[in-house]
Amino acid sequence: DAKVKISMDGKGQWMDNVFIERLWRSVKYEEVYLHAYENGSGARAGLGAYFEYYNTRRRHQGLGRRTPDKAYSKDQPLPHAA
Questions:
Q1: Tens of pLDDT, residue by residue, the chain (82 residues)
Q2: pTM for this prediction
Q3: Is the Cβ–Cβ distance between 77 and 66 less than 8 Å?
């Protein structure tokens, strides 16, 4: 018995999965499928650069055409849901 505690209570679990699925779809189609990595180091560097781009320069429709860094910055208030 490893005594592992699952932190998810089941509420909103399907919605969490939707966001992760969208992220991985973007990663695959915008980075992984476009580059033939020679090795793990190349993949690590390429994915690191992609996530830096994804978070700091790529605008997201669901965030009001802002980057995640801008949307979740502590300097800006988060928009309220209608």
A1: 567 666 666 666 767 788 889 899 999 999 999 999 999 999 999 999 999 999 999 999 988 999 999 998 877 565 666 5
A2: 0.67
A3: no
